[in-house]
Known about the structure:
The protein is an alpha/beta fold. It is 48% helix and 12% strand. The chain has three domains: 3-88, no CATH class; 92-136; 157-412, Rossmann fold, CATH 3.40.50.300. It has 19 helices and nine strands. A hairpin with an 8-residue loop joins strand 7 (383-391) and strand 8 (400-405).
Amino acid sequence: xxxxxxxxxxxxxxxxxxxxxxxxxxxxxxxxxxxxxxxxxxxxxxxxxxxxxxxxxxxxxxxxxxxxxxxxxxxxxxxxxxxxxxxxxxxxxxxxxxxxxxxxxxxxxxxxxxxxxxxxxxxxxxxxxxxxxxxxxxxxxxxxxxxxxxxxxxxxxxxxxxxxxxxxxxxxxxxxxxxxxxxxxxxxxxxxxxxxxxxxxxxxxxxxxxxxxxxxxxxxxxxxxxxxxxxxxxxxxxxxxxxxxxxxxxxxxxxxxxxxxxxxxxxxxxxxxxxxxxxxxxxxxxxxxxxxxxxxxxxxxxxxxxxxxxxxxxxxxxxxxxxxxxxxxxxxxxxxxxxxxxxxxxxxxxxxxxxxxxxxxxxxxxxxxxxxxxxxxxxxxxxxxxxxxxxxxxxxxxxxxxxxxxxxxxxxx
Length: 413
């Protein structure tokens, strides 16, 4: 019996899917069935009833219009293996799920115990709760907690969770504080200053690092060492050349934020997929307040996609899930398309490769624009504009102007 196919067949049942969807380990879904599973999730979310294999097949074909006859034949055979899989009893299905879930619990417990042993940080009761679940040998329902209705407690929670403010006043006025569970997308054309923007926000004067945030950077667009030096420039006010000439001074000046700067070395070798990023955050979740991925689009995501917008949708959904699951603030840097060339202000529709998939999963979208240097005799006037392409709270009306200090990677008025 093919347990994977049999289990997938059971997931067509809406009651079973609803009960166990949060317990489905990615290891239980074979790679070839991942796009079918994504399609099944959409069906359950939309129709909220049992889904027949025929209905799923028809939906799958609609979602993959670019499939050739050869692709369709291969997919049809895959669907038949699911349809013809032996029926599995609920008791066997629960056993399969239990074993996979217990492995996840063991991994979680080991990580927490390692943190406690090495740093003394953490709560032993959390480990004890996990061990109790492991000893039970069965899937236990997590304790459901409700949001407090005490407005004073709620006010304090919001102050604690959304405690990072923007160090550029005009941006702070529009976007307001950010924090755990939020996902922001920042887009710009080449040489418009994408990296300088987040370097200024994270490491500039009164930036997130100075506010006390542990900022982790996955920089696959330029060498992370170069970006780190830009961070030092933003904080100290010293140019790269000045840092090289007076390293002792720069080292002393950056001391207050040195332990808040975390740049992943060789991200292309160790952090090339969003799944690897998720694993990194899981292992360091007690030490990350803000995660910046530059560029997010360069990461791979598991699954097979006919169109780039489908891949972007899955990738950006995974990035947002990381923000929510680990209660951290995530910023994804992306490229703007040629439609944004020469524009000081433009909307999220100009983001590269996707008109809606990227927008659907972001809390904020900040589009950085610049005028065509050809209009200024080939000289960049360093004036930049920010369009709030998406904003769930705050004031979206009107753009934001700033001057880019390239030598110091700072936003200036």
